[in-house]
Amino acid sequence: MITEEIGTFSDTVEEAAPVEACTKCTACNTVCPVARSTEIFRGPKFLGPESERYRSQPEAAVTAGLDLCSGCKLCEVTCPSQVTIQEYIRRAQNKGAEEKGRTLRDWVLGHTRLLSRFGSMTAPLANFGNRNPLVRLVMERVLGIHHKRPLPRYQWLTFERWFKRNSLSPRGGGSGRGGLATHRTVAYFYGCWVNYNDRRLGEQVVAILERNGIDVIVPKQQCCGIPAVVNANMDLARKYGVENVRRLNGLPPGVDIIASSTSCGLMLKHDYSHLLDIPGAEQVGARVYDICEYLWMLHEAGELNLDFQPVTTRLLYHAPCHLKSHGIGYPAMRLLRLIPGVQLEEVDEGCCGISGTFGVKVEKYDLSMTIGSRLFAAVKAAGSDAVLADCETCRMQVEHGAGAQSAHPIDILARAYGHG
Amino acid sequence: MPDTTTGVVVIGGGSTGAGVLRDLSMRGIDAVLVEKGDLASGTTGRSHGLLHSGGRYCVNDLAAAIECVEEGRILRRIARTTIEDTGGYFVSVSEEDEAWVPRFVEGCGKAGISCERISVEEARRREPALSKQVRTVFWIPEDGHLDPFYLVMGNVESARRRGAQVRTYTEVTGFNRDGNRVTGVLTRDTMTGEETTIGCKAVINATGAWAGFVAKLLDVEVKVVPVKGVMVVLSHRVAHATINRCHKPGDGDIIVPALSVAILGTTAVRVPHPEVLPIEWEEVRHMIEEGSLMADGVSTARAMRAYAGVRPLYDLGAEAEGREMSRNFAVIDHEQRDGIAGFASIVGGKVTTYRLMAERVTDLVARRLGVTMPCATAGVPLNDRDDELDQLRHRPAQVGVPKPHGDELALQPLVCECELVRPQDVAPWFEDPAVRTLEDIRRRTRTGMGPCQAAVCSYRLAGRLVTDRHQDGPAATRAMADLLETRWRGVRHVFWGSQLRQAQVTAGLHLELFNLDRQLMLEKSTAPAGHFPPPQGEGQGGGVEKAEVASQR
Amino acid sequence: MRADIAVVGSGLAALVATRTLQQAGRNPVLIWPGLTSLYFTYATVDVLGYSDLTATQPVEQPEAGVAQLIADHPDHPYAVAGLDALRSGTTLLIEWLRAAGFSWQGSLAHNLLLPTAIGTPKPSCLVPDSMAPGDLRRDEPIVFCGFHGYEDFVPELAASNLSRSWGRGEGSVRAIRVSLPGFDASRLFTSIDLARSFEDKAFRQEVASRIRREISVDGHRLGVPAVLGLTHDSDIHSSFATQVGHPVFEIPTLPPSVLGLRLFDRLRKHIQESGVEMIWAAPAHEAEVSDGRCRRIFLKSAGREQPIDARAYVLAIEDTVDGALRAGVHTVVDPFFRQSLAHHAVPTERTDESLFKPQPFASIGYPVTDRLQPSDDAGRPLAGNVFVAGGAIAGYDPVGTKSRGGLAIATGYRAAKEAMAA
């Protein structure tokens, strides 16, 4: 849907509010992973555009059932009228939470960064606790975090500190910093996951970029805010977003921004300027690239280092829902097919079900496993060395649900470059 | 010999007739209401639903304004479930408008309308939709939205509980007289053609714009000037409160947030006949352009349909035309004026003052019948018990403002997803003999009044005609097609953007998936067009509606 | 991003074009702006149901019917695409359906005649096995079966209409209803919920036994709403029919449409898994044309516009309904070349007074050359390497003649062939 109001009404091409474009075709309900998995969910059509007509009234906030929306955005991806269904659901959910208050659990999950920081600081203890059945039962009772959900392992050394430690001297293998003069510099938005749970992925991203002659800088940054958005804490998300936008807009011109998590990347690219309506966010969004999208762009420009070692492996690729929302196709698959030895197949079974913090919650865990069951079955049936996904929680879910190894596509690329 | 007898026959099923029926029943007078179409299908149901504070009339028509003030306050007591207390803004948007401001302030003072001038900044803070052109803003707390359908149904149900009867699709074709006294009416079922005589002591002509035609059957003249008004419905409320242009009342100067939609009104064009109500593109365009002077988002909202209604202005002999004519009303005592006993007409007026109009004409007739009981309609709510609120409308709480369905209600099935109509909201109406078309169901429940304009719910309603009303397939299918066609008549006038896209989905569903066009061709001659018969045992069915019905709200 | 051939669209025309390119060894990328709003009309593939808008007699032989249509109307989109494109495209689609694991039947030689949810016979060319036993050219009596609390398929309505038009005598059509285990009629449930439940064997078994109790005599066939499984239609259908003990056929319901979902879900999945890259959520617009060729189009991706540089482009966009062509108050414009495709001083001119008659707006679209290139008023192509398929072709109105699927196949196939040659 494009809005083009040219002067007077007589030239109006379409309605201003995308919510009004809904024609009740119900395509969204057919693809909604939650609606397909439970009969207690009314589906995106009702909770989004249909309820939205009633939300403008001062007394009416249709909130029931909104928390069952996992936030995967497949409804928006599928909507032929480009209704921003998710945005309406999230705003309504937020409004409901403002009126009724949030649970402690949702408050905590919205503050992922705080939580992770604490987990990272107390890494050995936190990791022990997260794997201790007794502690998990207490967590389920007190916090409402399902005891069967594996929680991420925290690392004591954060990516941020690692980068600082290593940024003064040139590291081996790369032709970047301190090496040849390069014409590209990128800022890496590493996100909470890389910082507190998976530093290695961040190291690989830096190494790959440097291997391609690109300078990497790591600006100070906040959580992207997506956990806060889906846990009905839009003010917090906006606070994070405003801080990130301010910092990222302070980057020198010509510096592109790279994200290695599709959900963080989508927040930066799109949701800051749309859902959260943060001033200056469009300029940030226009500079943000998913890491694989960026590398493919280098390849098309003839700048990608194609000096790959063969990696003999059989891989499955699961496209995260939020990657679909980027509207860039599947650059990871294109990239990995450049590597000799890589056997790569897509497994297209829709949403994995975890949707960030959704599948962690005690009342949603079973639903999240039901949603993912088609994917798990397909992964098990296909068999592979690893399932690739550009999103960290998808990887957690596939490991948990299908018992498969998982990896970020960058991991394979790093191996091909000898950084495995 | 009449087929049936009663005390008073009320002709006309709009707000006035319904109000008269209730008034009579509360005074203990037996009454039957006859209406040639459905309840609220004429002027009332096609009004814009503005509950007038009186501000619109306070300069030019003080008497009407004062009535609005008083009646508005009464309606808030007795019909609160039909009213959304939105409050309203009167805004000036041009230098020319500004000249009206002092007169408006003076008029409000004279009429006793509470009116507060607020700064443009404050106004925009309260109502972000107000346009950038707005220069002066008054807050009029007593403007609001009055749901015309629910108002009529509420009056009728209240009267029915007191023993009154209602016959829809029943046209008066003549009168029985005994000398100069009216002793009964001859009626004809517009669907079946069946003729009936109703004996009575008096007849009240509450047919508004049609009053002249009824009076003519008795060879007396009632001069009513039919003045057409065109309205445009937008798919959401646009603003939280009503917005009136603070100027000499003109075209396109009202925006009414009405339940789930906004209604832009209106025009004033004298028409030769109350049923000839063409909608001109210039009128539609004008509504939207004028509306956008007052509120942002009007020109970029999804226009759902346009409809036309007719005002029944009473010609007092003045030279005035259309809007300049008084919105006041008159009771015509035909015994005094024309020497015809047992016949009275009530003409002019507006929906906001329907109760007062009913009171005045009922006073007259009651007096003639020797009934001394005074009017009680101002003191007793339409719904005598709170738990009856939901019987007429599905609205979960205070009817008018849809409240969130409670958590446990969230998974109730809906017949109409756009307008949140549940099965239990429509089911009772399939039992009601007054309900004869799916449009009648729509008027009583809002089914089909949302953006898709019955594309989805029409099938479910047709299904219920078969399962609940025991109609055969062709009749139910024809009724479904008729509902879609009636909706289509209004949609065509705003055929761009999403409503154009919507039409493709509707056609895809009904013509491609269901093959409805072929079904209609196959069954062309078997089902009576336009109507389905009443529930079995009522003994009516078949026939063709003859009037060209303009697009309905 | 660079691509060999870019196919823009979400309906059957886009899928057929993509498959055609892929089968020819090309490397298409499918730019998918969302599922078409009309996905629910693709319960079946209809090639030509009626020879013209007033015919009540269905076309028996669609291929012959289309040949006649082409002879009578040389400007019709079928004529531009050509009968060969319809034939080859249909063959391709049938093979593709098989490869993707579907069990469908039908051919261009004969239409089947299937009852709709209002009980009207409707001619269709290619149909899922799960619908085929409803063919009204056969004589077995029909029992329509609905479910208590499910209003999106009303068996009584279908039975009443069909019993009057089908002419197989007294008692040949009737309606029953059963209640479904675990589904309370006072709670909301949709066809998606039912379809999921029908994937459960025990559930099917229980429903089948309840239905068996309602049908005492043999030789009937059972029409049920199309909810027999979200994806694994044929398995569930045949096992359910065995459990019921009568032939069973599905009837498309109000949306959400399980049949439409199954078709698009699986074809999209299959084409992706067989190596075609799909770009989701990226409506395309703005063709950059120089020297008579389109150099790139732009996708509205998250954050920024994304150029797609392809050798050729197939615009298989579904006219205005999916927002591809934009209908303003007076003017319908196309997003790629910014052409005004139609202008109406008064919006009502776009419509007929009756919803059930052909609508002028339905025919709005690109005028095309004989190679399906969008053209200017003088018939010159706007870009030599752009080809239009599907609903965006001027004069393309499948509603009255029930020809949506066939037109999509013929134009999708032909546009793909032309794109390869460009």
Q: Which spans of chain B of ≥5 residues are poorly predicted at pLDDT below 50?
A: 387-408, 525-530, 536-553
CATH class of the largest domain in chain B: Alpha Beta
Tell me the series of helices and strands of chain C, N- to C-terminal. Answer: EHEHHHEEEEEHEHHEHEHEEEEEEEEH
Return the average pLDDT of chain B rounded to an integer: 88
User: What's the overall average pLDDT of chain C, rounded?
Assistant: 94
Coarse morphology of chain B? globular
What is the CATH superfamily classification of the largest domain in chain B?
FAD/NAD(P)-binding domain
Percentage of residues in helical conformation of chain C:
25-40%
Name of the CATH architecture of the largest domain in chain B: 3-Layer(bba) Sandwich
Give the class-level CATH name of the largest domain in chain C. Answer: Alpha Beta
Task: Give a quick account of the main beta sheet of chain B: strands, pairing sense, barrel closure.
Answer: 9 strands, mixed
Could you tell me the strand content of chain B as a percent range? 15-25%
Structural notes for this entry:
The complex is a heterotrimer of chains A (420), B (553) and C (422). Chain A has 420 residues and is of the alpha/beta class. Among the domains of chain A are: 9-100, Fumarate Reductase Iron-sulfur Protein, Chain B, domain 2, CATH 1.10.1060.10; 307-416, Rossmann fold (3-Layer(aba) Sandwich). Helices cover 47% and strands 8% of the residues of chain A. Chain A has 21 helices and eight strands. In chain A, helix 20 links the parallel strand 7 and strand 8 (406-407). Chain B is 32% helix and 20% strand. In chain B, strands 6, 7, 8, 15, 16, 17, 18, 19 and 20 form a nine-stranded mixed β-sheet that branches. Chain C has helices at residues 12-23, 62-72, 77-81, 83-99, 155-165, 191-198, 201-214, 233-244, 258-273, 404-421; strands at 2-9, 28-32, 104-105, 112-115, 121-124, 127-128, 142-147, 173-178, 221-225, 248-251, 277-280, 284-290, 293-300, 305-316, 326-327, 331-333, 340-343, 386-388. Chain C folds into two domains: 2-102 and 262-314 and 349-421, 3-Layer(bba) Sandwich (FAD/NAD(P)-binding domain), CATH 3.50.50.60; 132-251, Rossmann fold (3-Layer(aba) Sandwich). Chains in contact: A-B, A-C, B-C.
